[in-house]
Amino acid sequence: xxxxxxxxxxxxxxxxxxxxxxxxxxxxxxxxxxxxxxxxxxxxxxxxxxxxxxxxxxxxxxxxxxxxxxxxxxxxxxxxxxxxxxxxxxxxxxxxxxxxxxxxxxxxxxxxxxxxxxxxxxxxxxxxxxxxxxxxxxxxxxxxxxxxxxxxxxxxxxxxxxxxxxxxxxxxxxxxxxxxxxxxxxxxxxxxxxxxxxx
Length: 199
Description:
Blueprint: E1 2-4, H1 7-13, H2 17-21, E2 26-30, E3 39-42, H3 45-60, E4 66-70, E5 78-84, E6 87-94, E7 110-112, H4 117-134, E8 138-144, E9 155-160, H5 171-188
Antiparallel strand pairs: 1-4, 2-3, 2-4, 5-6, 5-8, 6-7, 8-9
């Protein structure tokens, strides 16, 4: 992964699209984007130039910065593990259509809480380790699981501090889960968990 402040800086450092494409497809992600907006899969020169154009428009709207990441073939399946206090809730975001590579719930992806249970458990475990090592206690962590190769394990994709709630059962259920986590946190601090209420 490499990060860039501006499109001009990226283009100056990478003037030859052919050289970039020799390493296979890659992904460009705009800063401050949400639910797949500003995520561009670059497979060829036209998709590269389209991504640069969209990133330039974002820059002009004062949304500078983007990252470039290797494209990991995963069949469009994204493993999301939501950290809420000491709890982790994992589920898959799965594509609706075959060949869909960028998968988001806001664009109709399916929420699947039972597919590949061993990998769901691995997502839980990885998110717990991340939480313990960093102190993160409220975030959605996305993992990709490569579809090729003998060993299957989740690769960290990104940490989302602002994330959609549909995969958790909607806004009301999100607040119920968050409330429970807050009460557990208060109990761990030997404070009264009834001091907070869900209204």
